[in-house]
Amino acid sequence: MQRLIVANWKMHGTQAEGAALAARVATNLRPAPPGVDVVLCPPFTALDRVASALAASGLRLGAQDVFWEDRGAFTGEVAPPMLTALGCTHVIVGHSERRAHLGETDAGVARKLDACWRHGLTPILCVGETAAERAAGQTEARLHAQVAAALEGRKCPKPLAVAYEPVWAIGGGRAAAPADCAAGLAVIRGVLAEMWAECADDVACLYGGSVNAENCRAFWEEGAADGSLVGGASLDPAAFVSICRQASLEGRAWSR
Ligand code: PEP
After folding, report:
1. Using an 8 Å Cβ cutoff, are 171 and 134 in contact?
2. Ligand 1 centre and the CA of 212: distance in Å?
3. Where do the domains of the chain lie?
4. Which residues are catalytic?
5. What is the pLDDT of residues 102-155, one digit of tens each?
6. Mutation probe of ligand 1 site: the residue of 124, 229, 240 with most atoms within 8 A of C-beta
């Protein structure tokens, strides 16, 4: 399987700053490293300029969210055809920050996946337990419930990546242990095998949560992740380029 490295810039950067960051990443990843798909997900406002900066780079463009309808009276929302028109191929769906601060529900996440699939976009479904759920021994149940709710009634094959993002590991510099990553991904792969038996192996299963250039390898090698969803470190072009290079065929010493 091709590795997948996704940059989530969150709510950082103007159009000009985004274009400059994308240009630095693209310049330093030219030619595009083999064996790895790299996706940059800037804020909506920077998508157009980042698309131009990525032209002919082989790097891909993604959005951080999408609405489930194609058009209509949905003030403030962004529809899938608007993203495909900008050249997006991927969309982050169900990020824990949206679940926590913006009322994102499992039902809404499922509708957003459908919207992505209607328009040929690859959703990157984010799931993960909170610190309280982890302390209560509910990690497995939470992951199972989130993945199952997203896929219920949906038949594969459909393009999909799932990112295991323990909420307690995001943004604070306290990454999960690779063993925690492996355990979480095993649960996710188990649900995929139950619900999408014929194509479970085609779903890239990522880890996200304080990934950086120093710890990324451990999540792929000991943590069994097919790639990374990178937040803070993706705003540092040198760190992000290093992660992508390490994930490429030239930089890695493992296979799955
Ligand atoms: C994220 O935003 O998905 C993320 C994993 O952030 P960070 O790498 O900063 O923890």
Report:
1. no
2. 10
3. 3-246
4. 95, 165
5. 999 999 999 999 999 999 999 999 999 999 999 999 999 999 999 999 999 999
6. 229
